[in-house]
């Protein structure tokens, strides 16, 4: 924690809604992770801006979570403040839609399809919120955030709120300018505006259903972060893990899915340490057998 950090002062300033030593497991898709010193759930953009400002004023480290689908939280938890973004408004205006960063991406995709607006069908059933999707340039089925984002409202490290165009994000495969920023000094996405195109509502709905069905049959259900590793150039991380004979492999309560080699599951009582040990084992085996270095798609957060 930074010198002069004042956790108690921050807790007081945040008021009644703040929770102390709150387990982070229920706020993540993997359902593992220790406590946050402080946690606040924000239902509006103003509350998010205020929570970040207060944390900075009290020199307390902070971490923002949307759906918690792309993070593995350490068993020792997170020192400082965790801000859970539940600002979820979605407003359509002609062929554009502006969604607050806590809105679920899959909900946004569904509403676009229902209005006969194309461009987000790839996100049908994709877990997590809009802010996390922008930061990680989420994508599937040849589509991604980079391909459809017009601009986003961003709270910078200097406390200024600025509308940033798509180019500002310097998107790459599951990467953006914000993801490259140092944890603790990152910018915050408050809302994002997407450009859509009118299409045949029935055809859009059919495509979205096809994608949902694909997810239902190809992805395991249960506690998981989705793809653990990025795909290496010209390959698939899941395929390499399966070819290394690791399908179904266990460490403690963590298991590599029988259905998809890149999905690591919490079978019920996994610790974050189990999951990380399994990740390292898979990475080592793939390197040993195929000389391929797998890079993480998920982020490790907290006190490892
Ligand atoms: C079953 C399953 C399937 C999945 N399939 C896919 C897929 O097909 N394609 C894909 O790309 N991903 C996939 N994922 C991963 C995940 O759904 C996406 O990465 C999603 O966009 C993460 O959003 P989130 O809100 O959960 O982010 P979180 O996990 O909450 O956060 C991820 C990172 O973004 C930061 N962050 C979150 N919100 C903000 C914000 N508003 N401003 C700044 N930083 C922020 C966090 O601090 C953290 O560093 C899958 C996950 C699961 C569980």
Task: Tell me what the structure shows.
The protein has 304 residues and is α+β, with helices and mostly antiparallel strands. The two termini are 15 Å apart. The protein folds into three domains: 7-85, Uridine Diphospho-n-acetylenolpyruvylglucosamine Reductase, domain 2 (2-Layer Sandwich), CATH 3.30.43; 90-216, Uridine Diphospho-n-acetylenolpyruvylglucosamine Reductase, domain 3; 222-301, UDP-N-acetylenolpyruvoylglucosamine reductase, C-terminal domain (Uridine Diphospho-n-acetylenolpyruvylglucosamine Reductase, domain 1, Alpha-Beta Complex). The longest helix is centred in the C-terminal third of the chain and has 19 residues, at 272-290. The radius of gyration is 19 Å and the shape is globular. The protein has helices at 7-14, 45-57, 105-114, 130-135, 177-180, 201-218, 237-243, 272-290; strands at 19-23, 35-42, 62-65, 71-73, 78-85, 90-93, 96-100, 117-118, 139-140, 143-144, 149-155, 161-165, 188-195, 197-198, 223-227, 250-251, 254-256, 263-266, 299-301. It has a five-stranded antiparallel sheet. Bound molecules: flavin-adenine dinucleotide.
Rg, Cα atoms, Å? 19 Å
Q: Ligands in the structure?
A: flavin-adenine dinucleotide
User: What is the number of helices?
Assistant: 8
- How many domains, as an integer? 3
- Largest pleated sheet: 5 strands, antiparallel
Going by helix content, strand content and strand pairing, the class is alpha+beta
Tell me the β content: 25-35%
Strand order of the largest sheet: 6-7-13-11-12
Q: Do you know the CATH topology of the largest domain? A: Uridine Diphospho-n-acetylenolpyruvylglucosamine Reductase, domain 3
What's the average pLDDT? 96
- Assigned CATH architecture of the largest domain: 2-Layer Sandwich
* SSE string, helices as H and strands as E: HEEHEEEEEHEHEEEEHEEHEHEEEHE
Number of E-type strands: 19
Broad CATH class of the largest domain: Alpha Beta
The coarse overall form would be globular
The rounded distance between the terminal residues' Cα atoms is 15 Å
What share of residues is helical? 25-40%
